[in-house]
């Protein structure tokens, strides 16, 4: 009930999401549609020090990111799209554990799609924990992943989260314009068969 009320209020407050995605936890059977909102307060160059360069899961239905993250993620998905048949997961089960990532044979730095998979793990936690999700997980999220008991929720989000790709036709016009403005558009030439 609290999750639904908070989700409805945040949808109303946020307006149109920058895009929607499919996400779930490994232990879930069905994919859920999650709205991803973007704000400049979460951009890497934001003047808001605690929000700068961060992604946050508010409810089972809402993730908030920076516009710069949203642009990078969309560009990444154009190159290597995720799908519900081939979802993105956090390689090695950790975003920041260099040894586990090396053992998994992936680069040191997580992709933006992996970060979004981690956030999908948090939406699963919000579904499971209900109204205690925000105060409980929010209180320890700054500690990030690690070996201590207070790292449990961050570790679990990386282990559980699956990002199943973008929902068709859900990318907002502003983000599409920005992306298309950066990409070089190739127009095929028509060759005449006449002499």
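Q: What amino acid sequence fits the structure above?
A:
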């Amino acid at each position: 009930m609290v999750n639904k009320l908070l989700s409805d209020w945040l949808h109303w407050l946020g307006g149109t999401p920058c895009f929607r995605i499919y996400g779930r936890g490994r232990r879930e059977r069905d994919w859920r549609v999650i709205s991803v909102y973007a704000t400049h307060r979460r951009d890497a160059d934001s003047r808001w020090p605690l929000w700068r360069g961060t992604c946050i899961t508010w409810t089972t239905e809402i993730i908030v990111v920076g516009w710069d993250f949203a642009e990078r993620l969309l560009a990444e998905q154009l190159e290597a799209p995720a799908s519900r048949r081939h979802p993105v997961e956090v390689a090695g089960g950790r975003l920041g554990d260099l040894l586990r990532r090396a053992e998994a044979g992936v680069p040191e730095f997580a992709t933006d799609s992996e970060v979004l998979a981690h956030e999908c793990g948090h939406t699963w936690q919000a579904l499971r924990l209900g109204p205690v999700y925000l105060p409980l997980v929010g209180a320890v999220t700054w500690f990030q992943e690690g070996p201590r008991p207070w790292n449990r929720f961050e570790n679990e989000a990386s282990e559980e989260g699956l990002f199943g790709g973008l929902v068709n036709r859900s990318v907002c016009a502003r983000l599409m314009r920005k992306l298309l403005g950066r990409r070089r558009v190739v127009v095929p030439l028509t060759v005449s068969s006449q002499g």
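Q: And what stands out in the fold?
A: Confidence is low (pLDDT under 50) at residues 185-195.
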